[in-house]
Design a protein that fits this description.
The chain has 284 residues and is of the alpha+beta class. Helices cover 45% and strands 17% of the residues.
Length: 284
């Protein structure tokens, strides 16, 4: 078998028939493979795959860039002093151009005029499904939180409106009470057992109050106290009657009537919170 002379150490295994023409046995041919038949190897680390990865990293780090910016940076990374430096720089720019076309075809980047924008790496259908499921769960959790918050705001609106109407009726019968007996909103009430010694210190500007209790105590917020007076018309406990529901609808805009009906019929997360026992604090 003839072959052209070469200094390469590549060899090939060929099959040779024996004299009887029976089954061929493998024989190692020590002749080197002709250069024109061998696959031309790329320079180490300078193939299209390498440049596609490097270009991908560049665009991803910048998010918005141009061809010239990416090519200039990759050329600057090329080692100097090579005999074929000029050719290699042109080769780098050509590789960058090819890599950008590959990334655009894969929808990893987009190009508008001279601007190149990072879109994102492709994902498998399983990864995409998992991501979408996680996003849906997060959105549903946020939606439930906002819905519960809206329900609470509606209950507060009804409660405040009922308090105003109650005060108006009281003033019509008994007149306006003295300023010393008026309690302004917002406020908190502190509940303690009889015989509890309470020590109160007030700052000079009357903006800070320091309380000391000799026994355990309970902090009651203004809204909790108003709800306990049934000013919420049973919306916080889900026990509203038909008449109470109609009365509550007069306290909110018409667009919120649907939410009022839902609060009155369905048991929400707010009902569970209201049914939980109040926390008591021990004196320090």
């Amino acid at each position: 078998m003839s072959s052209s002379s070469s200094t390469s150490s590549s060899y090939v295994v060929v099959k040779q028939e024996n004299e009887s023409g029976s089954q061929a046995v493998p024989v190692v041919n020590m002749a080197p493979i002709p250069a024109y038949k061998r696959r031309r190897n790329e320079k180490p680390g300078k193939g299209l795959r390498h440049f596609a990865m490097r270009v991908c990293e560049k665009v991803r780090s910048k998010m918005l860039t141009t061809y010239n910016e990416v090519a200039d940076e990759l050329v600057a990374e090329y080692p100097e002093g090579s005999n074929a430096e000029q050719y290699d720089q042109k080769n780098v720019r050509r590789r960058v151009y090819d890599a950008l076309n590959v990334l655009m075809a894969m929808n990893i980047i987009s190009k508008e005029k001279k601007e190149i924008k990072w879109i994102g790496l492709p994902v498998t259908s399983y990864q995409e499904s998992t991501t979408l499921t996680r996003e849906r769960e997060d959105l549903m959790a946020r939606l439930n939180e906002k819905q519960a918050f809206l329900h609470e705001l509606i209950v507060q609106q009804v409660t405040f409106k009922q308090l105003v109407e109650k005060n108006k009726k009281y003033e019509q019968i008994h007149g306006r009470p003295s300023s010393a007996s008026v309690l302004s909103l917002p406020f908190i009430a502190i509940k303690a057992d009889p015989g509890t010694v309470i020590d109160c210190s007030i700052s000079q500007d009357k903006k800070e109050y320091l309380f000391g209790f000799s026994n355990s105590y309970e902090i009651v917020e203004d809204m909790d106290l108003l709800k306990s007076m049934n000013l919420s018309l049973g919306l916080n406990t889900g026990t509203s009657t038909a008449d109470q529901l109609e009365q509550a609808k007069t306290c909110v805009p018409k667009k919120l009537h649907e939410f009022l009906s839902r609060i009155a019929v369905e048991s929400s997360a707010l009902d569970v919170v209201e049914e939980q026992p109040k926390k008591k604090f021990k004196s320090s």
